[in-house]
Specification:
The chain is of the alpha/beta class and 361 residues long. Helix content is 36%, strand content 12%. The site of pyridoxal-5'-phosphate has 15 residues, from helix 4 and helix 5.
Length: 361
């Protein structure tokens, strides 16, 4: 039958009417930028995460740049970032004037660890970007204990739970989210959010997203035109109450993969001890990944290697990544493969995927 790599549309079918109503509400209001929907969603999403403040921005990449600047990152500073991540985690650093410093990952969680971060800290390190990759949770508290500020890149981790039951978005100094349509909480276009419990930081981010101005009359610093818009906020407000249910669906699909014996065929992703990831992508590893890709292709099973070339090997990062050696990153880049994952992945679909993986031999 075949199984798609992800399914973002089925969960929204039941919400169609409510979504239409929300869109109409915005049309009727004739307020499209920084109005009541964005304010309400900022409050609701921050509360969901357990943070005091939310600042809606245009996308998850701007969210990182603006959050770093609001944390005081600038020219002369170093920002530690993993290389095994979506390119934007690192791309967002140079626009602040700071230098990206690439670190390695834990090969089983695919996230940064205290060891990989400690190895690259210098007196110039101003912040660490802890990416909660694939929905797993990076060990934020342990990294903070090294004496460095942490910005969580939580673009893939909406709905995940950290070991103490807290949520990504409230673990570091600040956190950033993306509402790109395919993420765990997706808009119908681009969108992003910064969450923090530091009021001053939130205020600086609010100013930066609007051209570096408090009052739209005086301009204190060079900022950005980067806002979440009212339509997207209204659409996201309809979906937010369903995020935990969708996250449970993702967790259940992960459990089904284990129960179906997938762990005997390939290496499964390991959750951070005590964490409960809402798997955004379900990424397995196999030394003969080409053979696995072929078998899944033949069976009509969705699969994708997201980060075959790690960020520090990308041409645009040559200046900062050129001579860096990151063995666990290189290995993950070579061996990883995302297989189907969604809130509505059924037991039967899981069995079909596992059978196809088994056929790779
Ligand atoms: C999607 C993503 C981003 C960027 O978000 P956009 O909204 O696409 O700009 C940043 N970091 C990670 C880890 C992501 O997955």
């Amino acid at each position: 039958m075949g199984v798609a790599l992800f399914d973002t549309s089925t969960p929204l079918i039941a919400l169609r009417e409510e979504l239409r109503g929300a869109i109409e509400r915005v049309l009727d209001s004739e307020r499209y930028i920084l109005g009541p929907e964005v304010s309400a969603f900022e409050r609701e999403f921050a509360a969901y995460c357990g943070a005091e403040h939310g600042v809606g921005v245009a996308n998850g990449t701007d969210a990182i740049t603006i959050a770093l600047r609001a944390m005081g990152v600038g020219p002369g500073d170093e920002v530690v970032v993993p290389s095994f991540t979506f390119y934007a985690s690192a791309e967002a650093i140079p626009p602040t004037g700071a230098t990206p410093v690439f670190c390695d990952i834990d090969p089983e969680t695919y996230c940064v660890s205290t060891e990989t971060v400690r190895a690259v800290l210098t007196p110039r390190t101003k912040a660490v970007i802890a990416v909660h990759l694939f929905g797993n949770v990076a060990p934020v508290a342990e990294i903070q204990a090294l004496g460095v500020a942490v910005l969580e890149d939580a673009a893939q981790a909406a709905g995940s739970l950290a070991p103490d039951g807290r949520r990504p978005g409230a673990l570091g100094t600040a956190a950033t989210f993306s509402f790109f349509p395919s993420k765990n909480l997706g808009a119908f276009g681009d969108g992003g959010m910064i969450t923090t419990s530091d009021e001053l930081l939130a205020e600086r981010a609010r100013t930066l997203r609007f051209h570096g101005s408090h009052d739209k009359i005086t301009y204190e610093q060079v900022g950005y035109n980067s806002r979440l818009d009212e339509l997207q906020a209204a659409i996201l407000r309809v979906q937010l109450p369903h995020l935990d249910g969708w996250a449970d669906g993702r967790r259940q699909a992960g459990r089904h993969y284990k129960e179906a014996g997938l762990g005997e065929l390939v290496r499964l992703p390991r959750a951070l001890d005590g964490a409960s990831p809402a798997w955004h992508l379900y990424v397995v590893a196999h030394p003969e990944v080409k053979r696995l890709e072929g078998a899944l292709e033949d069976a009509g099973i969705g699969h994708k290697a997201y980060y075959r070339t790690p960020v520090h090997r990308q041409a645009a990062m040559r200046e900062w990544g050129g001579d860096v050696e990151l063995p666990a990153t290189e290995q993950a880049a070579r061996m990883h493969l995302a297989i189907p994952m969604s809130p509505v992945l059924s037991r039967e679909q899981v069995d079909e995927v596992v059978a196809a993986v088994a056929s790779a031999g």
